[in-house]
Specification:
This protein is an alpha/beta fold. 30% of the residues lie in helices and 22% in strands. It has one domain (5-162, 183-210): NAD(P)-binding Rossmann-like Domain (Rossmann fold), CATH 3.40.50.720. Helix 5 runs parallel beside helix 6.
Length: 265
Amino acid sequence: MQTSGISILGCGWLGLPLANFLIRKGFQVYGSTTSKEKLAILRQNNIRAFELLLNPNAMGNDWYDFLENPTLIINIPPKIQEFGQDFHVKQIENLLRLVVKSNVRRIFYISSTSVYPEKNQVVCENSEVLSEHTLVKAENLLLSLPQIQIMILRCGGLMGENRIAGKSLAGKKTNTGSMPVNFIHREDVIRIIFQLLAKKVEKEIFNIVAPLHPTRQEVYAAQAQKYNFAKPIFEKADLPYKIVDSSKIQNFLNYEFLFPNPAEF
């Protein structure tokens, strides 16, 4: 049984099942939510629950209790459309002011493959990124922290459970059919994080993406048949794309994906 504590900032669609998985593996898990109503849900799942908010200033009275564990997983959406480009960067700045005074010695940051430009090419962790992207700025803040291990996890489009690729486009026209997908199943993200907990690194960036990249048309059509909804209507268009390579994490962990093909999610 594991005895180390882990704090998960953001126990939502990914964070809650991640917490449950880690608890089953023997970890003590602290979890945060911004909603009083969700505190009870976390407690029912044997998570030590905290109501905490970065707005973008740190709000809540229990931050140092929450940060007493050596490992922190940051899993909060940047909400760029709602609050603008700078909001999430300020959230991370304010969080790190607390982290440097805490017991945290290792951070996992859930980022996104949206940091890579679409230039019709394969991209890996050392490829060009969009320097003004909110997540890139947040990543750089984290990577500049001294004496704290940092793992940046650039996740592809998160799928699984109630997230079904193409369902929102059922019967609708789309011109994105020829683009290859960069999707990842939630269960693979959870298992990759669990395996990374056993690794010691200083600063690392990993792409977390399923190894196969069928086109959106192939994925949407397969999902429509599997989940019984109308296929989208695909219109031809020559749109820019990227294929995100995840061989680094596969080699680092010798990891075999539970769901390697997004058409079969």
